[in-house]
Amino acid sequence: MGTGPAVALTLAVLVAANLAVHYGGGPLGLVTAVAAVALLLGVLHWAGGTRADAGLAPGTLARGARWALALIGLVGLVYLAGALIPDTRPLFQDRRHEGMGAGELAVRVLVLVPVGTVLLEEVAFRGVLYGLLCRAHGALRATVGSSLLFGLWHVLPSLHLATAKPALTEVFGDTAAGAALAVAAAVLFTAAAGVLFCELRRRSGSLLAPMGLHWAVNALGYVAGFLLA
Predict the structure, then answer these.
(1) Where does the record place a coiled coil (predicted)?
(2) Nearest Cα to 139, choosing from 199, 194, 197, 211?
């Protein structure tokens, strides 16, 4: 399979997975994520890709794990400082945390985020897409292409972002136009985050580095929001 057809097939899998994860959620979302990961790695293999192309070469895993642990610790310190400073504490408030119990928090942090979000998105965007594009066009184009698509991936999850987070409601307002601006901002922000994740993948040679940062940002964000709710 050539690079063009492989990228097209990857995008088709991602569109279907995005819809299923967003509108299905729960167990269906997890099953969809795992199935999509298997399909995407299969696409990379059919296109002649290797585990190294996906950032999963055995020789790089130890280095990637060290990067991941360091990044998790860094995010933890930043979140702790942000939660302790009165001016930044409101940034962690999220109406989606209202009524969340400790059990649900544990499921989100230990299952939904690592499997339903981090595993799927990192394999898709920093693993398969980055690997396919890098082999054909180099690291720069791979970074730009996968990061732009990563930003667009977040359109559906960002539809109600402006009303879910009080700090964003103050900025964008509670209108349709404000919601559209919040979505656009989320797409740009996540695309920029995608560039950082790609650079971590490139420098470490391992998918574990961006996985660690991705999990820390999402999961520890849930923990901070829960504790400050």
Answers:
(1) none
(2) 199
d(CA 55, CA 49): 11
CA distance 177 to 194: 26
Asked whether the beta carbons of 195 and 143 are under 8 A apart, the reply is: yes
pTM of the model: 0.86
What the block records as the tokens of 214 is 């991705």
Mean pLDDT of residues grouped by 10 in the chain (229 residues)? 89 91 77 93 93 93 95 93 80 68 86 92 96 92 95 81 59 69 86 95 95 94 79
Q: Which ranges of the chain would DSSP assign to H, the alpha helix?
A: 3-24, 26-46, 61-84, 102-107, 120-121, 130-137, 139-153, 161-164, 166-172, 176-204, 208-228
Contacts 24+ apart (CB under 8 A), 86-92: 89/228, 90/166, 90/167, 91/167, 92/221, 92/224, 92/225, 92/228
φ, ψ for residue 55, nearest 5 deg? 80, 25
